[in-house]
Amino acid sequence: MKTVAVIFGGRSAEHDVSIISALTSVIKPLELTGQYRVEAIYIAKDGSWYWDDRLKDIALYQSGIEDFCQKAPKVHLLFEDGLTLVKSSQFAGRKMYRHIDVAFPVMHGTYGEDGSLMGLLEMAGVPYVGCGVSAAAVAMDKVLCKQVTGAQNIPTAPWVWFLASELERNSKPILAEIAALKYPLFVKPARLGSSIGITRVTDSAQLMNALEVAAHFDDKIIVEQAVANLFEVTVPIMGNDQPVAALVEQPLTKPDDFFDFDAKYLQGGKKGSSAKTGSQGYSNIPADLPKALYEQAQSLALQVYRAVGCSGTARVDLLIDTQTEVVYFNEVNPMPGSLYAHNWRQKGISGHQLVTELIRLAFERHAARQRLETTFQTNFLKQF
Questions:
Q1: Which of 75, 170, 225, 382 has its Cα between 20 and 30 A from that of 142?
Q2: DSSP strand pairing (312-321 vs 326-333)
Q3: What is the pLDDT of residues 252-287, one digit of tens each?
Q4: What is the pTM of this model?
Q5: Residue 175 burial (CB < 10 Å; 0-12/13-18/19+)?
Q6: What domains can you pick out in the chain, each with its CATH number?
Q7: Whether residue 358 has pLDDT greater than 80
C-alpha cells in the first residue's frame, strides 16, 4: 500500500482554506478508496511541521490547534532515498519513521502553492501532485503569468504593474500609468490567491487606499482594467501532456460585485447549494453560454494551461465580454481550493476517482522526469 503525505496549512493568508481543502477534498476521499495509507502533515502558521492522525479532524482546528502545537512533537524530514517523516514518540529515546511514496500538496498561497514546497519535494526526489516548480511560480505571480501568456498572444484586459516600494518612493509616475486605464479597475496583490487583498475601484478617489491594501499583502501589485459586459467563468483542468478540461463554470455574483473571498467561501455556507451549483452554492455548472463561446472558453483555458506549463491540475479563470464575444485570460490557480471536485463530479468523476487520478498523474510526471539526464561527466576538475 502506497503512503501519501497530504501537506496543508502553511505560512499563508490562505492557511484556513488550505485546511478545509485538505480534510474534505483530499484526505477523506483518499481514505475512502482503501488504496493508500494517508498521513496528514500540517504546517502551522509559524512554519512548524506536525504529523498526526488527529490532524484529520476539523474539530481540532476549531478549538484546540494552538494547544496541540504546543504539546505535539515537531516533524523532521529525512532526505535519504526519497522523503521520510521523523518524529519523537511518547517513549523516551524512540522515534517514529514513515517513508513517503507520493506527496499531495494542498497548500494555497505563499510558501506552498507558489512553487516553494514543490522545490523541496523535487530536491527530495518524491513524486507529488500538481504543477512543477516553474509552472507554480509563474501561475502564482499574476504579472509573470500575464507576461508568459501574452507572449503566446493570449488576450488579457489592459493592465499595469509595479513594486510597492516604487509606490512608496514616488507615486506620481505610477498613478499616471494607471490613469491610462479605464475605470472600474481591480487592484490586486500579484502573488496571492482566494481573492484576498483585492479591491474593485470605481474612481480615482478610491485608488490610493486600494493600492495600500494590496501593498499590505505583497510587494508586487497589479492593476487591471475591468472587462465590459462581463461574464466571468472558471475552468478546472487535469492532466500532464494531454490535459482535459472540466466544465466551464460561472460564479454567481451580483453585476457590480466580484468573485471575492466571501463569495467563494462564506456566502454559500449560509445559502446552501443545489444540483447546478458548486460546493459552496455560488456557481452555475455548466455556464450558460452559447455553444461556440463555451467551446472558445474551454479551448483558451487549455491553451493557458499549456503555455504556463501546468501539470497535474490547475484552474484557469477567464473573463468574457458578452457583447464583443471576446474571451480574456484572467489568472491561473495551480492548486484550486477543494480541487473543484464539485465541477468534476458534474462531469462524471467522483471525489475518490479525482484524487486517485491526480496521484497517477504525479507518478507519471515523476517517471518522465526520472528518464532525463541531470548530470554530465567531464574532466573539468582535473585541471585544478
A1: 170
A2: antiparallel
A3: 865 455 545 454 445 544 343 343 444 445 789 999
A4: 0.90
A5: middle
A6: 2-129 (3.40.50.20), 139-155+229-370 (3.30.470.20), 159-225 (3.30.1490.20)
A7: yes
